Amino acid sequence: MRVLLVEDYPPLQKSVAKGLREAGFAVDAAADGEEGLWYATTGEYDVVVLDLMLPKIDGLTVLKRLRAEGRPCHVLLLTAKDTVADRVRGLDLGADDYLVKPFAFAELLARVRALARRAYRAKNPTLRVGDLRIETPTQRVWRGREEAHLTPREYVLLEYLAMRAGEVVSRMDIWEHVYEFGSEADSNVVDVYIGYLRRKLERPCKPPLIHTVRGRGYRLGGGE
Amino acid sequence: MTPSLKWRLLGWTIGGMALLLAVFAVVVYTAIERALRNGFDDNLAVTAWAIAASAKQEEATVEVEFDEGEMSEFRRADRPAYFELWHEDGRALRRSSSLGERDLERRESAPGTPAFYPLALPDKRPGRAVALRFRPKVEDEQEGEDKPPAESTPAPPVVPQNLTLVVARDTAGLDRDLAMLRWLLAGAAGGTILLALLVAAATVRQGLRPLDALAARIAAIREDNLAAALPEDRMPAEMVPVVRRLNELLARLEAAFQRERALTADVAHELRTPLAGMRSTVEVALSRARAAGDYQQALRDCLAIVGQTQAMADNLLALARLEGGQTVLCAQEVRVAELVEAAWRPHAAAARARGIALESRLPADLEATADRDTLARVLSNLLANAAEYTDDGGRIEIGGWSAGDRVELRIANTGCRLTPEEAAHVFDRFWRGDAARAGTGVHCGLGLTLVQRGVAALGGTVAVKVDGGVFAVALILPAPGVP
Q: Could you tell me which chain B residue has the CA closest to the CA of A99?
């Protein structure tokens, strides 16, 4: 999943971005409202973590503009303003969630995950496709009874495919949602990682999970 | 015991009134008493003259043809009056029947003029007498007949006798009347005073009720309802100035409390940011096993945050001390250039890396009168500000000169994006341009507030001007030798 972090306080930006990346998210970070708005309007993000007190353009204005443009990203507001009035205002302006600083990073992570699930209408934190079971909170994967050990990059790719199980996912989608903006890898890396996944998940005695749809992309599950 | 307004008012009013009433009563009593006594005396005199008129002298004999039946007082047994007539030589001529064989005390008077005096009556009752010395009417024997004037032989001249008459009456009636008058006056005065005391007490209590009401309202004022002003509309005119001053005082107190509340809220708010940063850094560092280098970096990051927070706390404390008047300042002669150089040192390297040029036109021997530590902090904050907000490749200019009894300093930097309206706020607590931290988190908005308070404490002034992207601070300090 792709997350945009708009936070100007460097220690916070650094640690949150690091934590989210380690949890498997592709994170782009902006340090002021203007930069954040530019990122949000030029990229596709599943979740935007938005601080309110930002230089140049403040967080609420960024939120209003995003919503005015019809951007479907889920927004989590991060702020030290904690009164009920502040929360109501933020939510009424179109935010999806609100977290007060200081916060436990584990909670931020859980909330971002919840918003990411919402982006794909996957209510269940456990994703199942056929006999594939993915526990998103712990990021563990089983094929049948056998646990598969995936690298973080493999996992995020599989999770994304599972979120959109049964749909054809184009390479462009994967490129935009799984990898960070300005990643130097080229589009081939998608094919490479699909290969890795197949090697770890496909079994000769079991039906194939990952299907290639010529000219369009890949699909997880859904039958032939 | 604190003196009571009510008792003092009552005391003086009623006391004064009582005094006046007493004086008035005494005057009235004296006048009436005199009138009554004069009337009594007049009666005595009239009686005396009546008796005197009845005395006739024929040749050498005097006869008193006084008929006691006309004045029964001289005859009755119950509290009679007395009279006695004497010849000139002291022989008793006539007594009233009431006297019997006793004598009245004989007194003299000027001829024809009655003399009054008190005396004890023969039966021991208190009385008053009038003494009259007179000459009886001389009767001529031949007066009743017609005689040819030529034939009468002149009678030998009659020597008129001087008679003394004393008439005495008891004064019981008078005394009783006077006593009654005294009781009446005393009673009236006393009653009036008592009534006045009651009325006055009630009036004063009623009149002072607004004071009690005001006291009750003041007692109800707490820190959380300072804004509720005391009502002026139904206050008596004398209390309106008091209430007005009280309201002004309450308004100032409320403003001070609000500033304090705002400061507390601001500080709490400001603390949340570094805390969130530290928490996040530590939690992410702990979220999985990491290389020692990662932990070290996380610890370094936390230390940096701690440093910033510490700087904020120091600034706040210094500010509180300056505002609370707790800092003891000593006036020293300080070399400005030295302090400026020390204040710039921490920023020099970073500024150079950003291409910021520092031009200092401070005379090396420029001196000012100031408390060294406070001025050092002021300069440190000003230069930190300049270092932070100057654009990359920009310029910082420092100039100073002495002008009579003042020393003026100017610190200006390019790269300022504030409007003149915003520039008016730079000294406000926790105010920052852009409502954010502009990158480092060091500037929580207290630096220039501290500068302003510090300079004021040093006896100088500071002003800020924004013009064409240049932020200029003008500092005025007392010159050496100026107290």
A: B276
**DSSP string across B303-362:** HHHHHHHHHHHHHHHHHHHHHHT------EEEEHHHHHHHHHHHHHHHHHHTT-EEEEE-
Contact B40, B61 (CB under 8 A): no
Q: Residue B378: which of B462, B445, B442, B471 has the closest Cα?
A: B462
Q: Which two tokens stand for residue A82?
A: 């904690």
Q: What is the pLDDT of residues B155-209, one digit of tens each?
A: 666 677 788 888 888 888 888 989 999 999 999 988 988 998 898 888 888 888 8
> Measuring CA to CA, how many Å separate B134 from each of B43, B76, B106, B115, B166?
18, 27, 14, 12, 11
Q: In the prediction, which pLDDT does B27 show?
A: 94
Q: CB B438 to CB A105 under 8 A?
A: no
The partner residue sitting opposite A11, judged by closest CB among B281, B288, B436, is B281
State pLDDT tens for residues A61-112. 999 999 998 888 999 999 887 788 888 999 999 999 999 989 999 999 999 9
Q: Please check the confidence at residue B1 and state whether its pLDDT lies above 60.
A: no
A12 vs B contacts (CB less than 8 Å): 273, 276-277, 280
> B5-138+160-184 has which fold?
Beta-Lactamase (3.30.450)
B276: closest CA of chain A, how far (Å): 4
- % of chain B surpassing 70 pLDDT: 92
Query: In sequence order, what are the residues at sequence separation of 6 or more whose Cβ sits closer than 8 angstroms to the Cβ of residue B150?
Result: none
Per-residue tokens: A76: 């989590």
Q: What is the ipTM of this complex?
A: 0.81
Q: Model confidence over B259-268: pLDDT tens digits?
A: 777 777 777 7
A115 and A130 co-located in one domain:
no
Q: For chains A and B, what is the number of CB pairs under 8 angstroms?
A: 87
**The domain spanning residue A199 has which CATH number?**
1.10.10.10
Q: Are B135 and B108 in contact (CB under 8 A)?
A: no
Distance from CA of B436 to the nearest CA of A (A): 5
Q: Cβ A80–B288 below 8 Å, yes or no?
A: no
Judge whether A55 is closer than 8 Å to chain B, CB to CB.
yes
- Superfamily of segment(s) B328-478: Histidine kinase-like ATPase, C-terminal domain (3.30.565.10)
The pLDDT of residue A125 is above 90: no
What CATH number corresponds to the domain at position A32? Answer: 3.40.50.2300
pLDDT band, very low/low/confident/very high, at B151 (cuts 50, 70, 90): low
CA–CA gap between residue A95 and residue A111 (Å, rounded): 13
- A192 and A209 together in one domain: yes
Q: List CB contacts (< 8 A) between A105 and chain B.
A: 279-280, 283-284, 287
pTM listed for this prediction: 0.59
pLDDT of residue A105: 95
Query: Which residues form the domain of A83?
Result: 2-119
The reply to whether A54 and A161 lie within a common domain is: no
| Predicted confidence (pLDDT) per residue in B206-224, tens digit | 888 888 888 888 888 887 7
Asked if B277 and A8 come within 8 Å (Cβ–Cβ), the reply is no
Q: Do B279 and A58 touch (CB under 8 A)?
A: no
A19 CB within 8 Å of a chain B CB: yes
